[in-house]
Amino acid sequence: MEDNGDYLAAKKRYAMAIGEADANFLKPEDKSNALYNYGRMCGFLGDFAQAETNLLQALELEEKSDEPEKKTHTSMRLFELARLYQAWGRDTKAVS
User: How far is CA 86 from CA 4, 34, 44, 62, 91, in A?
Assistant: First the structure.
């Protein structure tokens, strides 16, 4: 879906993944991944405020993670947040 540019359908699937992460008490990094991807889709669809909220939540969950890839995931989330801020016209936030 996402690869075909159907961001709305992908967004719905990622929303389901967030619900599954909550319902099944998955690890913080699992929910973080779903929030990150949901946030990306929100950004692609122009819902910048919702995208920001989800990306920030994903970052918070990464801080709770014990996974060795934590730093890699954190940098991906920060990069996406910076890209979002740039698209949103919030260049000062993108730089920080």
Answer: 24, 22, 13, 23, 5
The torsion angles phi and psi of 38, rounded to 5 degrees, stand at -65, -45
Look up residue 90 and give its two tokens: 């919030």
Is the CATH number 1.25.40.10 carried by domain 2-95?
A: yes
pLDDT digits (tens, 9 = 90+) for 34-73: 999 999 999 999 999 999 999 999 999 888 777 776 667 8
Answer yes or no: are the C-beta atoms of 13 and 1 closer than 8 Å. Answer: yes
Q: Tell me the pTM.
A: 0.87
